[in-house]
Design goal:
Helices cover 35% and strands 16% of the residues. The chain is α/β, with parallel strands linked by helices. The chain has a 7-stranded mixed beta sheet with strand order 2-1-3-6-4-5-7. Helix 1 (50-67) packs across helix 6 and helix 3 (128-145) packs antiparallel against helix 6 (186-206). It is globular.
């Protein structure tokens, strides 16, 4: 698609690939959960807050899915959903998510760590469906960014108690100055979420495969938070 696969490039190309509405996503319900919010900012970068970047990514990802004909629900869409003096209760959030009876849950977060750590990574908790969804999305992100980060199991409350296939996409390290700058760039947000969309669409296509092709390989290593 003519996109740079190297995060070290100085500029970000603007891309306008418009997915066509088709039978794969028509009538599907996607829940996107931008992590944190209210007075819980999540991880902090030098110039940004995780909660703000999560929401920006979620809003862009919603536009891709809606263009393809899906129904998209966000757990929050602005400050009025979670006022600055309130902290969301994860139990309330997962109860709302499960009540939607959605086909898929995509949790959006930013990672944090050492200033040299970089690259997006996709996590899942358990189950064949979530495993394959995580791998399809991470393969697209590897193609786009060149990251070597692999899919990993994570014991995360939202993923553990979701009643639908669920993944957590850590879109990058907010503590890496270069990557933080990219994550704040609307053009980069548009590109990265396009690949999350593509991976999810690939996963829906697998719903037509025979079950024997969807058996879960041995679990990848698990991270407990």
């Amino acid at each position: 698609m003519g996109l740079s696969a190297n995060l070290r490039t100085a500029s970000v190309q603007v891309v306008n690939p418009a997915p066509l509405a088709g039978e794969l996503l028509q009538g599907r319900t996607i829940v996107i959960d931008p992590g944190h919010g209210g007075y819980d900012p999540g991880a902090l970068g030098k110039n940004s807050r995780e909660s703000q970047l999560n929401l920006a990514m979620a809003e862009q990802l919603r536009r891709w899915f809606e263009t393809a004909g899906a129904r998209v629900l966000l757990t929050r869409s602005g400050s009025r959903d979670l006022p600055p003096h309130q902290k969301y209760r994860v139990q309330d959030r997962i109860a709302w998510i499960n009540a939607t009876q959605a086909d898929v849950l995509i949790d959006i977060h930013c990672n944090s760590g050492g200033p040299r750590w970089s690259g997006p990574q996709t996590f899942y908790w358990d189950g064949a469906a979530s495993y394959h969804l995580a791998h399809d999305v991470q393969q697209e992100l590897q193609y786009f960014t060149g990251t070597k980060r692999a899919v990993t199991r994570i014991d995360q409350y939202v993923l553990r108690y979701a009643r639908m296939p669920a993944i957590n996409v850590e879109v990058g390290f907010i503590t890496n100055p270069r990557e933080e700058s990219q994550l704040m760039n609307p053009a980069y947000q548009k590109q990265l979420t396009w690949y999350v969309f593509l991976g999810t669409e690939r996963w829906f296509l697998k719903g037509r495969w025979p079950q024997r092709l969807l058996e879960t390989p041995p679990p990848t290593r698990m991270l407990i938070r």
